[in-house]
Amino acid sequence: xxxxxxxxxxxxxxxxxxxxxxxxxxxxxxxxxxxxxxxxxxxxxxxxxxxxxxxxxxxxxxxxxxxxxxxxxxxxxxxxxxxxxxxxxxxxxxxxxxxxxxxxxxxxxxxxxxxxxxxxxxxxxxxxxxxxxxxxxxxxxxxxxxxxxxxxxxxxxxxxxxxxxxxxxxxxxxxxxxxxxxxxxxxxxxxxxxxxxxxxxxxxxxxxxxxxxxxxxxxxxxxxxxxxxxxxxxxxxxxxxxxxxxxxxxxxxxxxxxxxxxxxxxxxxxxxxxxxxxxxxxxxxxxxxxxxxxxxxxxxxxxxxxxxxxxxxxxxxxxxxxxxxxxxxxx
Length: 331
Fold this sequence. Notes:
The chain is α/β, with parallel strands linked by helices. The protein has helices spanning 2-16, 22-27, 65-71, 92-98, 114-119, 134-140, 160-170, 174-194, 222-229, 236-241, 271-279, 281-284, 287-290, 304-310, 315-328; strands spanning 40-44, 47-51, 58-60, 78-81, 104-108, 111-112, 124-126, 145-147, 202-210, 213-217, 233-234, 248-252, 263-268, 294-298.
């Protein structure tokens, strides 16, 4: 019944939008791509999707998908909420791109409001950094063309380059996409050249949201990928400790010794969390802490942690500007 209701709403919405002009659609979030680029077929986790013409209204359902879409000159009409403190991802690196435009919030993480999505009359739905289920994909496909998460990667584990290319192809902006990727790659290369010492160091990214429970991120997590591309080596043991399909290893205080690497970056939400971690007796025994080679980075204010958690073509340059001097100061 829910599927039927959404499909009916989608049909009603499409019928009601037939009189909109191209300029109206573009102001609502149209792609502005060269129509000669279409049709395009994009392969993804649930098969492939052929997009016959330039999308004019785009909804993003991946947690950070809006960044690549914005970077390509498109303002999504709908997006999901990840960090509630900054709805629809309006962070410093994306603020100028959004301008005064505010998309409809159509879900939180992987819970989507199908009725709201249908009411927006999208002609393209993008879900790259997501955990979209097959049932959700089938329902959404009754509303519009859907490009699900990349094939061949676990959910939330595809490289940012792969997701960006999927988005760019969907929007008919392959050339612009490659320029964005090459520019970001150049920033990473610049840091590696400036700091060759990073390549000799092993780094781990971790967090802790409650006492006695800690998390370390595997090589497929955006945060770990970010530091790896800065030049640091990652610790293989972290991957071995993670559950199959997970990009995080859950640790008890007794296993904190796995975090004793050359550099340890904590991504935390408060000074209280920092004090709690530093006060853990077993943590105090780690050499990385004793030598002051651990770095506590906030998610927000400044938004450093959020930037490398997003790890997108928009957020990466911002993250590099903020984190590079902090890492360089650690001896």
